[in-house]
Specification:
Elements lengths: L1 H20 L3 E8 L10 H15 L7 E8 L4 H13 L5 E4 L3 H14 L2 E4 L16 E3 L4 H14 L4 E7 L2 H16 L3 E8 L7 H10 L3 E5 L2 H16 L4 E3 L5 E3 L27 H8 L4 E6 L4 E6 L2 E4 L9
Helix pairs in contact: 1-2, 3-4, 5-6, 8-9
């Protein structure tokens, strides 16, 4: 269904750009992270997806000439802007597609508006793309931070996760997700205790996880994506096995449940049935981080007396409260 919708959107985009050019020659530029932390969820796969969508549109069979070129923006706004200008001024690109990384997408949006081109954003998520930075030339074909905050964030607060600590990717997307989720948390009676800004593509999250644990927040909000999400979840799992007391609870939250007074309860690390609810997509390395070294495992679900079982990245609770897939 998603492929069909994307093909229809590409066809519409092609018709629009061709109408502007008054011919049947269109050049598309797929601009993404091809080599770093977002390459697994975009990169070469996104280039292939654009070519498949062009084929599915059927326009080449009707005499259209449609070329697709690609480039790696290296997650640097200045590099992305330079490529965009080269594409419009020299390569005569009609539309730019993809643009993972909200910082690069926001920068490219300005160039596209200046050149009166078309920008189809399918990889960046900052709500600013349709907010303060909205332009008539930008189509935001993706989830955004407003949706994540009002879906996952609101649901977690309603379930009792009313104190938050954010581990935030230190660029446009991370700050937008923290901002939008904070607004939802506070509007529903919750409180944000603190936050740690983390450079993009960080290898070691241990100091940030210690800050999160020390905050005593019920929810640790992972305002990051791609390889950073993979690394932070994997290291959180390792940290928990060394004595942390976690209960994972979502894309924007890893829930810490502290023992009640005067009980012999000792929390053991396990994954909550709502793990990664709201994440943009699953990919193999993210599954490895979630499942650890076990492709299928079951762990005791404390409190319900049931079991949490994991198979191919989807969780199912065999206990009394009835599990749901992520």
């Amino acid at each position: 269904m998603k492929s069909t919708c994307l093909s229809a959107l590409i066809a519409s985009l092609l018709l629009t750009t061709a109408a502007i050019a008054d011919d049947k020659i269109v050049k598309l530029g797929e601009l993404d992270d091809q080599s770093s932390l977002y390459a697994d969820s975009g990169g070469p796969g996104s280039v292939l997806a654009v070519n498949m969508a062009v084929e599915d549109s059927g326009l080449r069979d009707k005499g259209w000439t449609i070329d697709v070129i690609s480039a790696d923006h290296l997650n640097k706004p200045d590099v992305a802007v330079g490529i965009a200008r080269q594409w419009f001024d020299v390569d005569k690109v009609d539309a730019i597609i993809g643009v993972q990384n909200s910082g690069t997408a926001l920068a490219v949006a300005g160039v596209v508006k200046e050149k009166n081109g078309v920008l189809l954003v399918s990889g960046a998520a900052s709500s600013d793309l349709t907010g303060k930075a909205c332009t008539p030339n930008t189509i935001h074909w993706a989830y955004d931070t407003y949706a994540l905050a009002n879906g996952t964030g609101k649901a977690i607060v309603k379930q009792g996760g009313d104190t938050w600590f954010f581990i935030t990717a230190d660029y446009a997307f991370g700050h937008a997700l923290q901002r939008d989720t904070t607004a939802v948390v506070e509007a529903n009676g919750g409180k944000v205790i603190g936050a740690a800004n983390v450079p993009v593509n960080t290898a070691d999250f241990s100091s940030f996880l210690l800050q999160a644990q020390s905050s005593k927040a019920k929810v640790v909000g992972l305002a990051n994506a791609g390889g950073d999400t993979t690394n932070s979840i994997k290291q959180a799992a390792e940290f928990w096995h060394r004595g942390g007391r976690p209960e994972a609870r979502g894309f924007v939250g890893v829930h810490f449940k502290h023992p009640r007074p005067r009980t012999r309860y000792r929390a053991r690390p396990h994954l909550h049935r709502n793990l990664l609810l709201g994440h943009e997509r699953w990919h193999p390395r993210l599954l490895e981080a979630v499942l650890g070294s076990h492709e299928k495992s079951c762990r005791t679900h404390h409190g319900s007396g049931g079991r949490l079982c994991f198979d191919a990245g989807l969780s199912k609770n065999a206990g009394s409260d009835g599990g749901q897939s992520p």
